[in-house]
């Protein structure tokens, strides 16, 4: 803390989300066992020391700090969102590791009784009694949307909340930075809005990228270019929630697109080709034998074959999602029924000229 105190207590938990992603993209159980689970257990336990029941029967947090907004708030969304993700991830990790932890019941209680996220007419607040009311570069009050994917717009009401919160956040000019627009792009990609995602990345390019191709605010900042690269990834492929989504948020101008050996959660390598606005084929190779569930985006009935051209067992859901039985090292090729596309992986022709860099002569 500082004077005045700024109890910013969720940062370790947020950092551990990146460790969780490292595990999910490799399925290396040693990451889960040796790093994530023991550290996340301690980070969540720190919250449990000051999580207290209220008269409403819910569990509440005292005033904590939402990064960079500048004020403390009880039931701060930043911390509520991380705590909920932390407890859910501890339970899932314990199950995968076969750990019978004495705190299991406590984590389950937190998930069942934790105070709801404070919202108002404009969407997510900073915390209880503290609205989002000024320009703020950071989406710390919206972590449950991105990158935690705890809220994904699964219902009409939830989607409306996400859209309202996003519009309200970026609607305040003054303190917005490149990181704002990369976060807005990734949230738009989550909602399947490729045009909006591209628009926000355009704001990053036009406002903040320098003539030498580098990004700066008061000085060089590496996190924003990395975040922008991830925003592009989120437009091309998403794999949260144990489902691989191929080309989920492409703008209309991106009619031709190729990805090759793109790593997804579940330790799959994805190659896919889109031609003239239509996905022609998707290939997934399993590196760990994890469950393979994919929303491929190919219209109509599909064929799924192994590397030798033999049909693969699979199940198809009503939304077009398929579940394929793949062992470690196996591959699946998905095409439209009867289609035999060229499987050559090659660069595509750019749909627009590349930016011209450098200062005018």
Which keywords apply here?
Immunoglobulin-like; five-stranded antiparallel β-sheet; Glycosyltransferase; five-stranded mixed β-sheet; single chain; alpha+beta
Topology at a glance:
Elements: H1 11-26, H2 29-48, E1 52-53, E2 59-60, E3 64-65, E4 72-73, H3 77-97, H4 104-113, E5 119-120, E6 123-124, H5 156-170, H6 178-190, H7 194-208, H8 223-236, E7 237-238, E8 244-246, E9 257-264, E10 268-275, E11 278-286, E12 292-295, E13 302-305, E14 314-316, E15 322-324, E16 331-336
Parallel strand pairs: 8-12
Antiparallel strand pairs: 1-2, 3-4, 5-6, 7-8, 9-10, 10-11, 11-16, 12-15, 13-16, 14-15
In short:
The chain has 361 residues and is of the alpha+beta class. The protein has helices at 11-26, 29-48, 77-97, 104-113, 156-170, 178-190, 194-208, 223-236; strands at residues 52-53, 59-60, 64-65, 72-73, 119-120, 123-124, 237-238, 244-246, 257-264, 268-275, 278-286, 292-295, 302-305, 314-316, 322-324, 331-336. The protein has a 5-stranded mixed sheet with strand order 7-8-12-15-14. A 5-stranded antiparallel sheet has the order 9-10-11-16-13. Strands 1-2 form a two-stranded antiparallel ribbon.
């Amino acid at each position: 803390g500082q004077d005045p105190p700024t109890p910013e207590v969720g940062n370790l938990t947020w950092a551990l989300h990146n460790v969780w992603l490292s595990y999910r993209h490799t399925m290396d159980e040693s990451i889960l066992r040796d790093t994530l689970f023991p550290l996340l257990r301690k980070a969540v336990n720190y919250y449990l020391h000051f999580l207290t029941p209220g008269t409403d029967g819910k569990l509440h947090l005292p005033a904590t700090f939402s990064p960079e907004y500048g004020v403390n708030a009880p039931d701060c969304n930043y911390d509520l969102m991380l705590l909920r993700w932390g407890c859910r991830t501890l339970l899932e990790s314990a199950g995968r590791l076969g750990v019978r932890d004495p705190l299991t019941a406590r984590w389950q209680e937190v998930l069942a009784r934790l105070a709801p996220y404070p919202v108002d007419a404009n969407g997510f607040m900073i915390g209880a009694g503290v609205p989002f009311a000024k320009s703020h570069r950071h989406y710390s009050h919206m972590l449950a949307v991105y990158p935690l994917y705890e809220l994904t717009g699964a219902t009409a009401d939830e989607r409306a909340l996400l859209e309202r919160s996003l519009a309200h956040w970026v609607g305040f000019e003054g303190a917005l930075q490149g990181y704002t627009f990369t976060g807005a792009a990734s949230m738009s990609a989550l909602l399947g809005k490729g045009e909006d995602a591209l628009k926000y990345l355009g704001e990053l390019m036009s406002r903040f990228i320098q003539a030498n191709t580098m990004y700066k605010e008061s000085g060089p900042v590496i996190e924003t270019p990395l975040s922008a690269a991830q925003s592009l990834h989120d437009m091309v492929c998403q794999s949260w929630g144990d489902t691989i989504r191929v080309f989920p948020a492409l703008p209309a101008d991106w009619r031709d697109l190729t990805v090759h050996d793109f790593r997804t959660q579940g330790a799959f390598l994805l190659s896919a080709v889109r031609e003239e606005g239509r996905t022609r084929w998707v290939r997934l190779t399993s590196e760990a034998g994890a469950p393979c569930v994919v929303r491929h985006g190919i219209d109509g009935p599909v064929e799924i074959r192994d590397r030798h051209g033999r049909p693969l067992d699979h199940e198809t859901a009503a939304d077009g999602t398929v579940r394929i039985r793949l062992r470690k090292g196996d591959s699946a090729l998905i095409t439209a029924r009867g289609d035999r596309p060229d499987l050559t992986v090659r660069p595509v022709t750019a749909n627009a000229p590349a930016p011209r860099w450098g200062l005018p002569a």
